[in-house]
Amino acid sequence: MSTDTDRDLEAELESPRAGQSGIPIDAVCTGCGRVRVKRAEPEEMGQHPQIDPMALEATDCTSFKHVCHPCGSATWWNPVAVLTGLIESDGDEDEPRA
Ligand SMILES: [Zn+2]
What we know:
This protein has one helix at residues 9-14, and strands at 23-29, 35-40, 64-68, 73-82. By secondary structure, it is mainly beta. The chain has one domain. Strand 3 and strand 4 form a beta hairpin. The relative contact order is 0.23. It binds zinc ion. Zinc ion binds at residues 29, 31-32, 34, 68, 70-71, 75.
């Protein structure tokens, strides 16, 4: 397998195929071997629901189920990397007003 250096991870994440909510995960389909960005909830990967995604390691995550379009069905995906660079930081909005 070649390494895709041309991948646009942000575009993959914004695709509806990545999923609606969850942590951005680079994952490999166990069915066809393709690597895609998927969103997965921590619980789906055997993690605590409130875990800090920034502290999450792909090696700690279990496989999770997600739709794979080339496979035509939901398959198991093995996490390759937690894409912490793509996690939206939305905790900065509630600064107290002076
Ligand atoms: Zn597949």
